[in-house]
Amino acid sequence: MDAPYCGHAFDLFRNVYRGAHGYISLVVCLFGSVANLLNIVVLTRREMTSPTNAILTGLAVADLLVMLEYIPFAWHMYLSIGSKTNRYSYLWALFVLLHSNFTQVCHTISIWLTVTLAVWRYIAVAYPQRNREWCGMQRTIVAIAMGYLTCPLLCIPLFLAFEIQSRVALIDENGNLVQTELGKANHNLLIDLNFCIYSVVIKIIPCIALTVLSLRLICALMDAKRRREALTSGSKKTPRNLENERQTDRTTKMLLAVLLLFLITEFPQGILGLLSIILGRRFFHDCYNKLGDVMDILALINSAINFMIYCAMSRQFRTTFSLLFRPRWLPVPQVDNGVNHNHTTTMVTQV
C-alpha cells in the first residue's frame, strides 16, 4: 500500500482543530454578519456614493450571505448536542447539499467583485483621464449585476455532481450526499471538471490576476507620484493638492490590503484543488479533506474582516459610521469641508 501524501500529523491536526472549529467559526460568522451589515449601511449613505463603494457594497452583501448561511451549518454540524443520527437525516443531507452550492456561489461572487475592484482601482490610478468614462456608476452596476448573474452559471457543474441518496444502516434511514450517476460517468469527468473550475477558474486565475493587478497598481502609483513631483517641482503645493494626493495613496493602500487578504486566504485553496486534479483522489482524501475546516475558516475570516480594514484606513468611513451610530451625548465629529470628495473615482479616505 502506498504511503499517504500527508502523514498522521495531518490527522492529528484535523482532530484537534475540528473540536474548536465550530466555536471559532460561529464567533467569526456572528462578528462578520454584524460587520458586513454595518458595511452595507455605511457604504450606501448618499455621501459615500461612488463606483468603488458600490463594488464594496456588493462584496459586503455576498459576504453577509455566506456568514448567515454558515451559522446554522456550524451549529448543527459541530456544536449540536443532540443525537448524531439527526445529522444524517434526509433533511440534514438536503441542507448540506444546499449549503455547499449556496456558499460556493456567494463566495464566487465575492471573488468576482474583488477582481473587479482591483481592475477599477488600477484604471483610476493608471488612466485617470479615462476613469470617469470606463468606470462610471452605470458600468459599475452592470459589472456587479454580471457577477451575481453569471457566477451561479459558473457553478453548474457543482450542482450536477452531487445528489442525496437514501440508504439503510441498521434500523435508521440516512440521507447521504453522494456523487450523481452523471458525476461518475466517463471516469468521473464531471467531478474532475468541477474541481478544475473550482481550483483554476475560481481560485488560481483570480489570484494570479490580482497579483498582477496589484503589482501594476503599485507601479502606476509610483509613476503617478513621480509625475506629480516633476510637475510641481519648484512650486509650493496647496493644502488641497496635498490632501488629494494623500487620499489617493490611502485609498490604494486600503484596497491593496483587501486584495492581499484575499490572496492569503484563497490561493492555498486553489493550489490544493489543483493538486487534487493532478495527483488524483488519494491526495484529495489524504490532504484536501483533512484541511477542509481550515479552508472554511480562512474563507470566513476573509469575508468578515473588511470592516476592520475600512475602519483602520478610512476617515470618511469612520466619520460616517460615527454619525450614524454614536450615542447622542457624544460630540459630533468635525469633517474638513475643504476636502475634495471625488465621488466618481475613489472611496474618500481621510486618515
From TrEMBL:
Entry keyword set: Membrane, Transmembrane, Transmembrane helix
Domain G-protein coupled receptors family 1 profile: 35-310
Location(s) in or outside the cell: Membrane
Matching CDD domains: 7tmA_FMRFamide_R-like
The keyword Membrane is assigned to this record: yes
Domain of life: Eukaryota
GO cellular component, one term: plasma membrane
MF annotations from Gene Ontology: G protein-coupled peptide receptor activity
TM regions (residue ranges): 20-42, 54-78, 90-120, 141-162, 197-218, 255-279, 294-313
Family: Belongs to the G-protein coupled receptor 1 family.
PROSITE patterns referenced in this protein's UniProt entry, alphabetically: G_PROTEIN_RECEP_F1_2
Protein name from the UniProt record: G-protein coupled receptors family 1 profile domain-containing protein
